[in-house]
Amino acid sequence: xxxxxxxxxxxxxxxxxxxxxxxxxxxxxxxxxxxxxxxxxxxxxxxxxxxxxxxxxxxxxxxxxxxxxxxxxxxxxxxxxxxxxxxxxxxxxxxxxxxxxxxxxxxxxxxxxxxxxxxxxxxxxxxxxxxxxxxxxxxxxxxxxxxxxxxxxxxxxxxxxxxxxxxxxxxxxxxxxxxxxxxxxxxxxxxxxxxxxxxxxxxxxxxxxxxxxxxxxxxxxxxxxxxxxxxxxxxxxxxxxxxxxxxxxxxxxxxxxxxxxxxxxxxxxxxxxxxxxxxxxxxxxxxxxxxxxxxxxxxxxxxxxxxxxxxxxxxxxxxxxxxxxxxxxxxxxxxxxxxxxxxxxxxxxxxxxxxxxxxxxxxxxxxxxxxxx
Length: 373
Ligand SMILES: NC(=O)c1ccc[n+]([C@@H]2O[C@H](COP(=O)([O-])OP(=O)(O)OC[C@H]3O[C@@H](n4cnc5c(N)ncnc54)[C@H](O)[C@@H]3O)[C@@H](O)[C@H]2O)c1
Ligand SMILES: [Zn+2]
Ligand SMILES: [Zn+2]
Hints:
Strand content: 25-35%
Helix content: 25-40%
Distance between the termini: 20 Å
Structural class: alpha/beta
Bound molecules: nicotinamide-adenine-dinucleotide, zinc ion
CATH architecture of the largest domain: Alpha-Beta Complex
Shape: globular
Number of helices: 11
Low-confidence stretches: none
Oligomer: single chain
Largest sheet: 7 strands, mixed
Order of helices and strands: EHEEHEEEHEEEEEHEHEHEHEHEHEHEHE
Mean pLDDT: 97
Number of strands: 19
């Protein structure tokens, strides 16, 4: 067991601003030793994603207290079985990307090449445990729940081997961290589901970390136009700076009657999905990656889908197999075609995590990184 420092969400649904209500406290936590199929990782950096905020504001109800953070990278310090050499392709000292849905590799969902989220992995995430059901985080013997098998807003984490993908050392920690959620999710939706043809356009609704990752991934395709849609002018300007060919607010894109064969919704609000559906061209695909509250509903014309041969597809974790797809993103980044670092707005200290949640909720940041090194 070691003592670590971590950002623990104590209660759900605290009023804003979080800088005053302070629902997350940075505290000393006991971290148990890793078990056989687990790793101890020293966290270097962790990104602040809307899926963290959704736990804080109660849109996605999870058990508390929970140590948040699910987009992180760090260095492997120890294996659960005590070995120090290579194990399943990972060595002590390797930099690993932590991914927020472990794939068990054995269930029927795991046989779908990434299209369906792993069943035991999803069950563990919902229960706030590691894959296999364990909880390694405690405070005075009381359990602290894991966030999506990672809990990366901390100096160290114990994760299942299936939650870690090694990357070469030339991939810096801030790039590695973003590969684990924003890039895998937004980029994976483009590579694995949208896969635009030359001459087609890709529209992205919602230009936060996930949507911007979809934008930069779509820009890696030759002869593909990229359209960014967000309600905030600053986000439209940021997407243009990254190379988006056209940008619009939801009202502007509706008024202009624009249609695209591949449309990605990365907001997590029903109005944004309605915008995305209306933007989809005949024969096209609306790919939804946003995570609204479970009670959210949208209004759709079924006839529109049939008469125009359109489809609506949900994509979790970018429909990715992380061990297959993270190297694809690393290769694009190394070729200079995927500017992942451009998604970083600022670095914050662990103690400023409540303020970081306010910035994310206000829409004033793309990706903030919590620096733990
Ligand atoms: N499917 C997955 O595996 C997965 C993984 C990570 C995140 N997510 C979800 O993806 C969504 C985006 O995450 P993020 O971290 O990029 O969030 P974010 O808060 O950084 O970005 C959301 C963006 O949407 C914009 N927006 C809000 N309402 C809008 C509207 N009606 N129309 C157009 N734009 C609007 C905001 O201005 C903001 O720029 C969240 O719901 C998150 O929980 C899903
Ligand atoms: Zn995320
Ligand atoms: Zn599985």
